[in-house]
C-alpha cells in the first residue's frame, strides 16, 4: 500500500522544482498521477481516473506504455 501523504509530499516538492510539470510517480508497474495531474493525464491519454478510499483522484499508465502516451 502506498502512503498518500508521502506521494503528495513528493508531488509538492517536484512541482516546486519544476513549476508547471506533470508529475508521474512509479508505483509498481505503473506511473501514477494524483489530483490535478491525474485529470490532465486522463485527458491526454484517454484513460479513466479513479478515486481511492481517501477520495484521492488517480490516473495511471503502465510503465512500458509511457512512450506511447
From TrEMBL:
<dbReference type="InterPro" id="IPR016151">
    <property type="entry name" value="DNA_mismatch_repair_MutS_N"/>
</dbReference>
<dbReference type="GO" id="GO:0030983">
    <property type="term" value="F:mismatched DNA binding"/>
</dbReference>
<dbReference type="InterPro" id="IPR007695">
    <property type="entry name" value="DNA_mismatch_repair_MutS-lik_N"/>
</dbReference>
<dbReference type="GO" id="GO:0006298">
    <property type="term" value="P:mismatch repair"/>
</dbReference>
<dbReference type="Pfam" id="PF01624">
    <property type="entry name" value="MutS_I"/>
</dbReference>
<dbReference type="GO" id="GO:0005524">
    <property type="term" value="F:ATP binding"/>
</dbReference>
<feature type="domain" description="DNA mismatch repair protein MutS-like N-terminal">
    <location>
        <begin position="9"/>
        <end position="68"/>
    </location>
</feature>
<protein>
    <recommendedName>
        <fullName>DNA mismatch repair protein MutS-like N-terminal domain-containing protein</fullName>
    </recommendedName>
</protein>
Amino acid at each position: 500500500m502506498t502512503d498518500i501523504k508521502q506521494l503528495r509530499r513528493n508531488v509538492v516538492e517536484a512541482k516546486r522544482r519544476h513549476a508547471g510539470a506533470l508529475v508521474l510517480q512509479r508505483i509498481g508497474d505503473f506511473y501514477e498521477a494524483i489530483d490535478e495531474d491525474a485529470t490532465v493525464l486522463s485527458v491526454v491519454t484517454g484513460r479513466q481516473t479513479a478515486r481511492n478510499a481517501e477520495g484521492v483522484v488517480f490516473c495511471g499508465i503502465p510503465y512500458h506504455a509511457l512512450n506511447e502516451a
